[in-house]
Write a structure and sequence with these properties.
Blueprint: H1 6-23, H2 25-39, E1 48-51, E2 56-63, E3 68-72, E4 77-80, H3 82-87, E5 91-92, H4 94-99, E6 102-111, H5 120-127, H6 133-149, H7 165-178, E7 190-193, E8 200-209, H8 214-231
Antiparallel strand pairs: 1-2, 1-5, 2-3, 3-4, 6-8, 7-8
Length: about 240
């Protein structure tokens, strides 16, 4: 119709398309990335994200065709192209806020030289602790039956089963967390020993606070560990 060779026309259109794609590369990539972010519910204004590669740690304030603006906790602003959020990995904290619990995973190092078997006097003292009364009595009954069935000679400490101050302490911490009003009791609560290193035994507390706000969260875990440090001498244990 134009009196031209179709091949020349197609070549010209291809060259024009290549130039347009080069000029509007960021816009096209940003548009496609924006659709992916929205469709997959990966990001939206108000979300808190962390992206260490680009020194980003804060709240998303704006999502546009070409940029995503994040106000960091130090009040600086970081601008990231949307396609980087699709091609690279980032951490979105919104799931944590929506869950209603914020995780605490911290340990305290105990001097293993302070770990010992419980004496009758120690057990009697532990029975007076409200959170330990049932545990001590039930465990003692199980140990008594076991030692009796196996004719254990209790004059030797190595024989049979016995309670230790560290085991009683771990049970106390577990019950303490499960009854703490600031802990989310619908989520996992656990107190465990980690691999000893040298002369120390790390005792790790794993639980979730009921309030996800950062300031409240820090206050709760600080109160918990203040309490732990204060009561350890009651169990004859020392901080390494």
């Amino acid at each position: 119709m134009l009196g031209k060779n179709p091949t020349a026309l197609l070549t010209g259109l291809s060259a024009s398309a290549a130039i347009l794609m080069l000029v509007f590369k960021d816009t096209i990539m940003g548009f496609v990335s924006g659709i992916l972010l929205s469709t997959n519910k990966m990001l939206k204004p108000g979300d808190c994200i962390t992206m260490p590669k680009y020194n980003t740690d804060g709240m998303v304030t704006e999502v546009t065709l070409n940029t995503v603006k994040v106000q960091n906790w130090d009040k600086t602003i970081t601008t990231i192209p949307p396609y980087l959020l699709v091609s690279d990995s980032f951490q979105n904290w919104q799931g944590m806020f929506d869950s209603g619990g914020r995780r605490v995973k911290r340990s305290i190092n105990i001097d293993m030289n302070s770990v010992k078997f419980c004496t009758p006097e120690m057990l009697e003292k532990y029975r007076k602790i409200h959170l330990l009364r049932d545990y001590v009595e039930e465990t003692e009954e199980v140990i008594r039956q076991y030692n009796q069935e196996h004719s254990i000679d209790n004059s030797v400490l190595v024989n049979g089963r016995r309670q230790t101050n560290l085991g009683v302490f771990r049970s106390y911490l577990t019950t303490y967390l499960k009854t703490h009003p600031a802990v989310n009791h619908s989520m996992m609560t656990m107190v465990r020993q980690l691999q000893p290193t040298g002369e120390e035994i790390p005792m790790e507390l794993y639980f979730f606070t009921a309030n996800t706000a950062w300031v409240v969260y820090e206050g709760v875990q600080a109160d918990v560990f203040d309490h732990i440090l204060a009561i350890m001498p009651e169990f004859g244990l020392l901080v390494f």
